[in-house]
Write a structure and sequence with these properties.
The structure holds three protein chains of three kinds. By secondary structure, chain B is mainly α. Chain B is built from 16 helices and no strands. Chain B folds into two domains: 2-154, no CATH class; 236-465, MetI-like fold (Orthogonal Bundle). The two termini of chain B are 55 Å apart. Chain C is an alpha/beta fold. The two termini of chain C are 31 Å apart. The chains are: A mainly alpha, B mainly alpha, C alpha/beta.
């Protein structure tokens, strides 16, 4: 091979190598975009909700209600007959099957919805009101254009008669699409159109608060000890090895720890944010200690020496000078650690946070789900409505995570000093 | 209740701070002596002595109270009954007693449970009463002790600092305690499991189907039954499945991660680096359950349809889908770690290579990568450890069937999947099935421990070389 | 004793690092098979200058170079020139010894391998042996060629780097303070070696030691704050410089 040929070959190799690198970067970025795109296109539907306008005649005599009833009296009254009557007025039906079909275009909570309406708007007693009732999941999907209505009748759950009703309702402008507040306020439900992340949002919130309260102080104190006071001996070495290894132990092992010790030995309440918070705190602790130590280490020794030279004690030089300078770094490390904890699923499954909980938790010792667990639970459901809900939950979860991470980056960039 | 007590302690301790500070000023002024520290330190001294022992005792009490009461109740049931209960039944009765006490009891009320609930109530009130008495006396004793030191003008700053350091040290011990807790909780159940199933049958058996596990009392197993039982708990298919999926993941993650790490470190302009690095790192920040959903909903079905077009039978839960998505998740770990180690290679080595007329890629391939190799190996090992410990992706996308296969289109199962599947929902305690999950956890813990240890050794060696 | 053939001719060379001008209008001629020493206080631009000759400044993103550098009449300061070919012709030895973390043999064989100078193993062995002999290291390392280059002493490492530089048979060797990290004995060895090397190579050496410049060079240039103040034969420069500033510097008034 001549010199010229060799050189050409070398430059081709150079180009090829660079191309591989660039392709890898582009591939990685494409993965991100693809993932985000899939989640968004699947999840955006969950933010709207389909309702059907229904005329309801709140005749107090028929309901056997007194005049000016209290909320409790309304609550105790049976609205079933009134509800069914109002629903059946929507479309003319013949026979029981058609009646059933008609009622099934509504979400099964219609009675509660009508009741809640009259409690909030007592002025409509003895009057006729037009109420927007939640449509069933199938109608909701049909209205969003996701339902395969061209299939033969026996292969879909919406009957031809229901399609007929739907088309008439659309024609009469009785079908509306509104912003889905249920998604944020409701707890879990077997009916996708009623299911919301309210419960798991609160569950995640309580969990993270418990994790923060337990892990942050301990992490920061432990890193101060290891970075500033620890003598170089076997115990210190052992602690360090422990921290480094714990940071890389799979999260599911911490779930087993929570199950075996917290639930098994100490009999803590199952399925609660308290246990989840403690488990995640143990998992997060080493992951926070490592960045905390790094930011303490970044404070130059001259600061410590300066304080010691004016007669401050070692503790004073650390608490008055070193720690305040390291705070932004420790905070950003903590936030990133908490963001990881917020997205954690496997340990929570093991401590029983997969229970089906309809009620919103009001404290860390009430059973609840958390956002990532909700994703797991709903992903097991086959209904299209739940696929949509799952993606929407992921969007909400990612919004939190991105906000937290962005805040951590902001903290680091804004307050980080470059020591030269 | 505990919250109220805690609040009271804090309140009392705060007043101790002000009291101590005032007291030392008065005493030293009256006796015309010099304080040994700033007055604040005397306040802190008194306040810390007042609060720390009490809070510690309160915490321990809260943690251990349920266990002790449970032991009492169960002891009561067994001693007052002629009937023999096994531990599962005892547990159930205890739960019912608790439910009755809390007012959410469902089921048939028996005399035992009713009596138990009464006992439970009285135990609780005894515990509450003694807790308060003990706490009050502790606070009095410790406050008096520190007060006595204070009026003798002790070296308050040194003493407070000693307490501070002790608190710091205790906090750093939490890491060791966590490790001990993990090992204890895993070993405890695993040892019970290994008394039923021989450890070698567990480690080297090739058939896994824990749903076939039927025996509840380990002492009455006949040899034939044992033979059937050991075939339910042979974990080789799980190890193989775990390794296989991790292997697929590494095939995706190592080349893409390594090449993008190299590109970002050596070729990319500052601007490209600034924007593309955070985007790639988003992949590391996405919760694994999201990847699992993605794998199960999009990638799995895509492969199945794609395979059908070519007449291939692809399971919708396949090792390929799980491994591929896991690989994508791991890309940023490989890329940012190798980016870091490559950046740590001193520029002088690159200069030396350029100076003899090497091209950039020759310099990277023949000088930079060999120099960074220990660091790269370390980061790849860490990524492997992450892959074998990863749970949600495989739970949602890899399947449950334990079989020995090297066909990536079939479904496989992993250690983590089985742990989740065994422990999800209600568990029967003391069944070999439940215990086997802990034995699997123990295996996983040691496998990742060894990998992490080797990886960290590599990384440490590498750091020492260039620092 | 000087021959008059110009090897490197520099005209109107300006170098900027970002906003900062590191070299100002440098005009300098370097002669074939001579040792040219560049002296001056630190930060004066002498290292910057020699890094222009083999285009090592390309590695630094913010660096801008204008002006002309000709080697044997061929312009090298333009985009068309292939830096790989250029650096094969112009070797460099750095301030701190920087052997690759490979064996001694591989360190020297690296250059010939990538440039395809040896088509079989025997030829490569021979190149390695000659280069190590030329850099006066052969006797010390011939029995342990597969030990890592980093296991050698500092002076040996620097001679290994010289062997690496001459292994591709360059025309010019640039030396950027090659002895500043070495003890006096190792320094003496390197200086001895340069005496030998100048028979085959043109050498440009940056040094902060005026004594070294006197000992090894035939020609000396004095840089100050990015300007080339004066250049002449070493004899003249140190006995009777034209410029007052040069006089002050070599007598130790500043620097």
């Amino acid at each position: 091979m001549s010199k010229e040929e060799l050189l050409k070959k070398r430059y081709r190799a150079e180009k090829r190598f660079k191309f591989y690198g660039l392709t890898s970067v582009i591939l990685a970025i494409l993965f991100v975009l693809f993932l985000v795109n899939v989640i968004f296109s699947k999840g955006k539907g969950a933010f709207s909700r389909t309702t059907i306008s229904v005329e309801v005649d709140f005749n107090t005599e028929k309901l056997e209600l007194k005049n000016n009833p209290t909320n409790e009296e309304i609550q105790d009254t049976d609205f079933y007959d009134l509800s069914i009557e109002s629903l059946l007025n929507v479309y003319k039906t013949k026979g029981l099957k058609e009646e059933k079909d008609l009622i099934r275009i509504f979400s099964p909570d219609y009675e509660i919805e009508i009741k809640n309406f009259i409690i909030e708007n007592k002025g409509f007693l003895n009057k006729t009101a037009i109420i927007e009732l939640t449509a069933s999941d199938d109608i909701d999907q049909l209205n969003k254009g996701n339902y395969p209505r061209h299939l033969p009748e026996e292969r879909r759950r919406i009957s031809d008669f229901q399609l007929l009703i739907y088309d008439k309702l659309v024609e009469d402008n009785k079908i509306q699409k509104t912003f889905n507040t249920f998604l944020f306020t409701n707890g879990d439900s077997r009916d996708p159109e009623l299911a919301g992340v309210g419960g798991s949002l609160l569950g995640s919130f309580f969990t993270i608060i418990v994790t923060l309260l337990l892990s942050f102080p301990v992490a920061i104190l432990a890193s101060i000890y290891l970075e500033e006071f620890a003598p170089k001996n076997r115990i210190t070495d052992f602690i360090e090895i422990n921290i480094n290894n714990l940071a890389a132990v799979p999260s599911i092992v911490f779930g087993l720890l929570g199950l075996g010790i917290l639930l098994g030995t100490f009999d803590f309440p199952r399925s609660t944010p308290l246990v989840a918070g403690i488990t995640l705190a143990l998992m997060t602790l080493p992951r926070i200690i490592i960045p905390c130590r790094a930011s303490l280490k970044a404070v130059p020794p001259s600061i410590r020496e300066g304080a010691l030279a004016v007669g401050a004690s070692k503790v004073q030089s650390v608490t008055h000078h070193v720690v305040p300078l390291a705070i932004p770094g420790t905070l950003s490390g903590t936030i990133i650690g908490l963001a990881q904890a917020l997205g954690e699923t496997a340990p929570l499954i093991l401590i029983g946070m997969v229970a089906f909980v309809v009620d919103l938790p009001s404290s860390p010792v009430d059973p609840s789900a958390s956002l990532p667990v909700q994703v797991y639970l709903w992903s097991e459901q086959a209904e299209r409505g739940f696929v949509e809900k799952t993606s929407a939950t992921i969007m909400i979860l990612l919004t939190f995570l991105i906000t937290m991470n962005a805040f951590a980056v902001y903290l680091r960039q804004k307050f980080e000093r470059r020591w030269s | 209740m505990n919250l109220a007590i805690l609040l009271l302690i804090v309140l009392f301790s705060t007043s101790c701070f002000f009291f101590g500070r005032k007291k030392i000023i008065n005493i030293t002024a009256a006796n015309k002596i010099r304080m040994n520290a700033l007055p604040d330190y005397y306040g802190y001294y008194l306040a810390l002595w007042c609060a720390i022992p009490a809070v510690l005792i309160l915490a321990f009490w809260t943690v251990f109270e349920p266990t002790i009461i449970k032991a009492f109740i169960i002891n009561n049931i067994t001693s007052s009954n002629l009937k023999e209960f096994n531990s599962d039944e005892l547990n159930l009765i205890y739960q019912q007693i608790k439910a009755l006490y809390l007012g959410n009891f469902t089921g048939t009320l028996t005399e035992e449970i009713r009596r138990g609930a009464e006992n439970y109530k009285s135990f609780l009130s005894i515990a509450e009463g003694s807790k308060i008495v003990i706490l009050i006396s502790i606070v009095i004793v410790t406050t008096l002790y520190s007060y006595k030191k204070l009026i003798n003008n002790n070296k308050a700053r040194e003493d407070v600092e000693k307490i501070f350091k002790a608190v710091l040290f205790t906090c750093s011990l939490v890491a060791i305690l966590t490790t001990i807790g993990i090992i204890f909780s895993l070993l405890f159940e695993s040892i019970k499991f290994f008394t039923t199933i021989n450890i070698f049958d567990f480690l080297f058996g090739t058939s896994w189907s824990p749903q076939r596990a039927f025996v509840r009392d380990a002492s009455t197993i006949t040899p034939e039954e044992y033979n059937e039982l050991k075939d339910a708990f042979g974990s080789v298919p799980l190890f193989a499945g775990t390794a296989f999926i991790a292997f697929i993941a590494m095939i995706v993650a190592v080349p893409i991660g390594l090449f993008s790490g190299i590109y970002l470190a050596e070729y990319a302009s500052k601007k490209v680096r600034k924007y593309s690095k955070p985007i790639i790192e988003i992949l590391a920040g996405i919760p694994t359950v999201v990847y699992g959903f993605f794998a199960a909903l999009t990638v799995g079905p895509f492969f199945r349809e794609f395979g059908e077009r070519f007449g291939l039978e692809v399971s919708s839960e396949s090792a390929l889908a799980a491994g591929l998505v896991m690989g994508v998740m791991i890309i940023p770990y490989v890329s940012s770690l190798s980016d870091d180690v490559i950046n740590a290679v001193p520029q002088s080595l690159r200069d030396g290579s350029y100076a003899v007329g090497a091209t950039k890629s020759e310099t990277i391939k023949k000088v930079v990568i060999p120099a960074a190799l220990p660091g790269i190996v370390g980061s790849v090992l860490l990524a492997v450890s992450r892959a074998i410990g990863e749970t949600m992706i495989v739970v949602m996308a890899a399947g449950l069937a334990a079989r020995l296969t090297i066909n990536p289109l079939e479904s496989t199962t992993t250690i983590t999947t089985q742990i989740v599947m065994i422990l999800i929902g209600d568990q029967e305690f003391d069944s070999p099935k439940t215990q086997s999950a802990f034995a699997l956890g123990l295996t996983l813990f040691f496998a990742t421990l060894i990998l992490n240890y080797i990886a960290l050794r590599f990384v440490k060696k590498y750091r020492e070389k260039y620092e | 004793m000087t021959n008059n053939k110009v090897k490197i001719k520099t005209e109107k060379l300006d170098v900027f690092y970002g906003q900062k001008q590191a070299l100002k209008n440098v005009n300098l001629e370097i002669f074939n098979r001579e040792v040219t020493a560049l002296i001056g206080p630190s930060g004066c631009g002498k290292s910057t200058y020699i890094r222009c000759i083999n285009r090592m400044n390309d590695v630094i993103e913010t660096c801008k170079i204008s002006g002309s550098i000709k080697i044997d009449g061929q312009e090298i300061n333009n985009k068309q020139i292939d830096v790989v070919r250029l650096r094969e012709r112009i070797g460099m030895v750095f301030q701190k010894p920087n052997p690759f973390p490979k064996s001694i043999y591989d360190n020297v064989a690296y250059g010939p391998q990538i440039h395809g100078l040896a088509d079989h193993k025997d030829k490569l062995d021979q190149i390695v042996q000659t280069s190590l002999k030329k850099s006066a290291l052969w006797e010390e390392v011939k029995d342990r060629l597969d030990e890592p280059g980093t296991s050698l002493s500092g002076g040996q490492q620097q001679r290994l780097c010289i062997a690496r530089a001459i292994s591709v048979n360059p025309e010019v060797i640039l030396m950027d303070e090659p002895c500043s990290a070495l003890d006096p004995i190792a320094t003496a060895k390197i200086e001895e070696l340069m005496e030998e090397l100048k028979k085959t190579f043109t050498i440009v050496i940056v040094t902060h030691s005026m004594a070294q410049a006197v000992r090894v060079s035939q020609r000396t240039g004095f840089f100050h704050l990015g300007n080339l103040i004066e250049v002449d034969t070493t004899d003249k420069m140190f006995k009777n410089p034209n410029n007052k500033m040069t006089q002050d510097y070599i007598t130790g008034r500043f620097g």
